[in-house]
Amino acid sequence: MLKTIFSLLLILSINTLAKDAPMKTIYDFKVNTIDGKETTLEQYKGKVMLIVNVASKCGYTPQYAGLETLYKKYKEQGLVVLGFPCNQFSSQEPGSEAEIQNFCRVNFGVTFPMFSKINVNGDDTHPLYHYLKSEQPGILGTETIKWNFTKFLVDKEGKVIERFGSSTKPISLEEEIESLLK
Fold first, then answer.
1. Could you give the CA distance from residue 104 to residue 122 in angstroms, rounded to a whole number?
2. What is the value of pTM for the model shown?
3. In what order do the strands lie in the sheet containing 160-164?
4. Which residues are catalytic?
5. Domain boundaries, the chain
6. What's 119's DSSP letter?
7. Architecture of domain 24-181 in this structure
8. Mean pLDDT lowest among 1-5, 35-39, 68-72, 134-138
9. pLDDT digits (tens, 9 = 90+) for 41-82
């Protein structure tokens, strides 16, 4: 009997704590812009977000052009592409933030928001990527990001809708993006 009462009290305590603790949304995560300013994703509330881990020396690097095309085509309707450089895959993003920014502008005309380098896997995974991976695991439920240019599509309410692998070309996401922009 005492064990049952203790168990009920423990469950009530946990439920009370859970109710008091604010749920973390995608808008709460702190990130640094590519020029080092701390911010959150709050400024993108109400927009469709395409969040991508990017690299400058990767076989998929030409996808910057497709990402920029999507951004230019749909930004007035509420799409924002967010680029997060990552050097975890064969050291394919070795440059400084300034070098990355210059590379993206000069070679691909990138105007969409870019952020400071982060880790997307391992002990130092950025909290945003912990969240994205838990919301949309990969194949067979794995959370690990397999390579550069993995894409997460987030709706206007901040719900992570879908995860796309590196080989998925940005242009192939138009239909999903258009449906979320309606």
1. 26
2. 0.86
3. 79-85, 48-54, 151-154, 160-164
4. 58
5. 24-181
6. B
7. 3-Layer(aba) Sandwich (3.40)
8. 1-5
9. 999 999 999 999 999 999 999 999 999 999 999 999 999 999
